[in-house]
Amino acid sequence: MFNSDVYTSRRNALRKLMPSGIILFPGNTEASYNYPANTYTFRQDSNFSYFFGLENPDFAGVIDVDNDVDYIFGNDFEIDDIIWMGPQPKVADLAAKAGVKNAASLDELATFIANAIRKGRQIHFTLPYRAEVTLQLSQLLGIRPLRLKEYVSMPLIEAIVQLRSVKSDLEVAEIEKAIDTAWHMFTTGMRMAYPGKKEQEIVGAMEGISIAHGRPVSFPIILSMNGQILHNHHHEGILQEGRMMVMDAGSETSLNYASDITRTVPVGGKFSQKQREIYEIVLNANLNSIAVTKPGTFYRDCHTVACETIAGGLKDLGLMKGDVKEAVVAGAHALFLPHGLGHMLGLDVHDMEGLGQINVGYDSEIQPSKQFGTAYLRMGRRLQPGFVITNEPGIYFIPELIDMWKAEKKYAEFLNYDKIEEYRAFGGIRIEDDILVTVDGHRVLGRPIPKTVAEVEATMADRID
Ligand code: GLY
Ligand code: MN
Ligand code: MN
User: Fold this and answer.
1) Ligand 1: which atom is nearest the Cα of residue 250?
2) pTM tops 0.85, yes or no
3) Is any atom of ligand 1 closer than 6 Å to the C-beta of 351?
């Protein structure tokens, strides 16, 4: 974990942003896989991790806004546990690592919260996303599980978003570590992408690299020749010459910071002319929208730059027609790019999404679009120095969507359906980088992962069987 000062100052910053009351952060519990004692790899809750840093299950953190005091609640291990787990630190010693002087048991948490409720003090919490924590909060607060959402604290959500959105140098360094692990994952995946290789074998190699660097992947790997399926977690394919393979993956560091990278490569290591033409449009969309990334710019405007680059490139190839800007305003480009440019990245791969995407990506200045495609943009608001965002444009040929729009003659003034038919089996291409917004612009984070046609082909030439 970071030095205890980091967590103390984060809690003090939160305290300053909150009017009064008690803030309750339940950490995650162990989650069972197929019987109670056989659990998934433990992953701490990201808010708990941000404010308290401890990687222990079944802990809770409390910040008393009015009395300038913080608590860690958790149970010390008994000898029965220690026989199986080895020596374990005391809760009080762990609390000290987070800069917290007050440690007590979970029974005492129940008494503490009951007393606070009796005194009419407000208890601030965010909406839990795991059943175990939902039940724990329900019991502590005396609110039925399904009604917890009516009592979540908007001031707390807004304060957390304000703090976690701006990454410190320490946090950026962690994210860059996660990207450096991704460099190893992706260059390995590229070098394995030859005809006859099972997709699952490449997934396994990439996931293994993440674990070998310390932690599991930051989300289930998306790897497929069917890149037109945006979040395709089926890996049963056997690679075929002439297809493209999308790899969308990331790693987590020991402090839970994530990377999120996508590369798309030609199976066999050489782009055909048709593949290269589409690839370079996506690459230009990525580069052009990164180029306009700077403080003060609406992220939605970066998205629009990517959309216009894609519409312009597809017009040059004869798949689109008419005025490029008008086509994008109308939403015709969304046949090929039916998702947003990206999202915040940090302790969560979709950072803070559990706090409600609208609270993270939008504000009083800008609300989500209702238009198909741009409606999926997870963030539209102005960029600030310290934001870390992804940039992940793509071009996809989704047969079901093409058929539907073609039958409706949708956007016929902008879409050349006859030409589009020539691409219906093409699949999809996405390219994703992680970007820091700096004081005067931006920085693409981490060790550069091969991205241009020449870089990808050169990397793949060093084949791994
Ligand atoms: N990994 C999913 C995404 O890129 O948002
Ligand atoms: Mn991704
Ligand atoms: Mn992403």
Assistant:
1) 1
2) yes
3) no
